[in-house]
Amino acid sequence: MSAVAANLHGVGVQSGVLAATAAAAGIGVSPAGAGPAPRDVALFASTDRAGLTDLIVRGFHGLVDVTGRTPEVAVRSAVAATATTLSLATATAWSIDCAALVCDALEGRQMIAAEKRADVELALHEAVANAVIHGNLAIGSSFGTTAESFDAFCGRVTERMADPAYGARRITIAIVREGGRLDLRVTDEGVGYDPATLVARAEDAKSGRGLEIMRAMAGALAVEDGGRTLVLSFEL
Amino acid sequence: MDYKIVETGSDLTVAMSGRFTFVDREPFGKVVQRIGQMTGGTCAIDLSAVEFVDSAALGMLLMARDAAGSHGARLVLRGPKGHVKRVFDIAKFDALFVIEPAA
After folding, report:
1. A1 has a pLDDT exceeding 70
2. Which one of A40, A88, A207, B18 has the lowest number of neighbouring Cβ atoms within 10 Å?
3. Binary contact (A122, B54; C-beta < 8 A)
4. What is the mean predicted confidence (pLDDT) over A193-207?
5. Please, what is the end-to-end C-alpha distance for chain B in angstroms?
6. Which fold has domain A114-236?
7. A122 interface with B at CB cutoff 8 Å
8. Contact A231, A221 (CB under 8 A)
């Protein structure tokens, strides 16, 4: 197996952490200030959405959040991936509005037309919300039906997010453009689920519309990897 | 999301703007609380300046409707357009709410 030529760039990451992560991932460290080579990955410690968008637009092959668990594994995966990959800690994915980030980057790279953006953004937003809440945070239930149950649900989200056993799990978004089709693959590190077990919601239920919205917004939707990966496909 | 509440007699108008998603649960919770204090009249949630809603926002609007109904007030949604209107159509919100055109 020949090694893939790739370097790791640091964005807001201490040089010691950058060097150790690159070494553990088996790749080199890019000289400071150098532009991205085709397979290069950026290891970042930042929640500046515009700055992260710019890294994708500038052509980085992968972005890896240093605050997620095992960044060296995520870097290795990003280098090996054929798609542009964004790997975020759960807490980062939740706080930076990563669906808007990905859509800004897709527009910046002229991969989606402006009129398609809202559909792509909403579908991705719902997919990330599911991956965060039901996947990585392992919260099976949803809002319930009252303001009180909604508050309790929000409390559980906040509590799990602050617990590294859940909050440091990763959400990975892979961007695959093939001809006239765009696939966005959202992967979590939860236990997965069997799509056949999902029950239909009542008409006026307060939650459970995410999947329905994704189906309407994306041309096709597929569940893979035992429920850990959701693939949204859009005809462009 | 930003909002402004205007009271006219026993009626309320909540004018919202920007993006309305799960992250707005705290400010919108205050809106729901205020709606829950109504003892009659109509609450209109004006969505004409809202650009983006997610499934959590749909759930929060249903909670606002229930809060109004609990003390005999009614809730209407006003002026959804563009993407917001499309999401309402997908969720069949016209069967769950009175939806009025923009004022």
Report:
1. no
2. B18
3. yes
4. 72
5. 20
6. Heat Shock Protein 90 (3.30.565)
7. yes
8. yes
Whether the CB-CB separation of A206 and A191 falls below 8 Å is answered with no
Inter-residue contact B8 to B41 (CB < 8 Å): no
* pLDDT of residue A224 exceeding 90: yes
What is the interface pTM, i.e. ipTM, of the complex? 0.89
User: Which residue does chain B place closest to A153, by CA atoms?
Assistant: B25
Task: Give domain B2-100's CATH number out of 3.30.565.10, 3.30.750.24, 3.30.930.10, 3.30.70.1450.
Answer: 3.30.750.24
Domain residue extents for chain A? 1-81, 114-236
Across A58-77, average pLDDT:
97
User: What is the β-pairing status of strands A7-11 and A28-29?
Assistant: parallel
pLDDT digits (tens, 9 = 90+) for A130-171: 999 999 999 987 777 777 888 888 899 999 999 999 999 999
Consecutive H or E run containing B37: none
Q: Which residues from A are below 8 Å from B60, CB to CB?
A: 150, 206
- Could you tell me which chain B residue has the CA closest to the CA of A144? B59
A41-44/A28-29 β-pairing: unpaired
If pLDDT is split at 50, 70 and 90, which confidence band does A4 have?
Answer: low
Q: Residue ranges of chain B with pLDDT lower than 50?
A: none
- CA distance to partner chain A, nearest, from residue B13 (Å): 20
Number of other residues whose CB lies within 10 A of the CB of residue A20: 13
The full length of chain B comes to: 103
**Residues in B touching A149 (Cβ below 8 Å):** none
